[in-house]
Amino acid sequence: MKSKKTPQLSTAKQRELGAELRRIRMRAGYLATDMSRMLGWPASTISRLESGLRSYQAGDVAIYLARAKATPRELDALVALDRLPDDGYQVRRHPTAFPDDLPLTTTLDTGSQSITTYDPGDIPRQLQTEPFIRETLIKNGHTDGPALDRAVDKRIANQPISLRQPGPFTFYMHKATLLKRTQRPAVLHEQVLHLLITSSLPRHQIHLVPADFALVNPHPGFALYRHDQHRPLVHHQQPTTSLFLENEHDVAHYTSQLEHIASKAFTVQQTRDWLTGYLAKLERQLTQNLADSK
């Protein structure tokens, strides 16, 4: 009896390249069958290549991009990406506090079966409201205008609640983040209300972490992405760069960190109770501010 062949799990780099090939092909108005005919490749090869489920030979990416009418800049960037080692460590640069536009981040946000996020210093970007995103990006040096509008729209569009993904999605955030009150009261009120509503959705779990909790080795926030057909991946966000980790010992380390965080965090119901009380407090403050302004 033949043993079942273990399915090959795709890497982050393969998925990123595949997503970019699909985007450029669709922009040119070609179907996958058109590419199959022009390249002389089986349709299944095109599908698996764009899904990140197939390894490719040297030169395949350049040939595909040329047929799909990629721009010279796209061709250079993606051929350079293709030549990077696929060793479980990927580094990408991005604007301050905004990794959302990275093709790899978009691929992970829109194509993962589960996401678990820990953010010690801010509200996870997957949970932020439009006014909160706008104020946060402006504080990080982004200029108000069309570019900021596009950034806000991009972040909202890739949130689980916008994509209506089944999940599960689990978020850990520090209670101190909400108590800092760095946003205007009305913005913070809307954000807390959004957290409360989101926490009631199926397979969306929000856990507050006590203000005095700290990991042994403190670091910026991170997210763990999982999918049956892809290797688990940790996105470790820095202010202007993102590190994507896939090696087993890295994923195991961050999984252990999440287990430790979960053991100290509030339950979902405790979090909802605290948010409800805090929302009432913010509403009283807004009412008082309105009365004082008259």
From TrEMBL:
Residues in the signal sequence: none
A GO term for molecular function: DNA binding
Pfam entry (one): DUF5753
Domain of life, per lineage: Bacteria
All copies of domain HTH cro/C1-type, residue ranges: 21-55
InterPro entries for this protein: Cro/C1-type_HTH, DUF5753, Lambda_DNA-bd_dom_sf
Protein name: Transcriptional regulator with XRE-family HTH domain
Organism field: Amycolatopsis umgeniensis
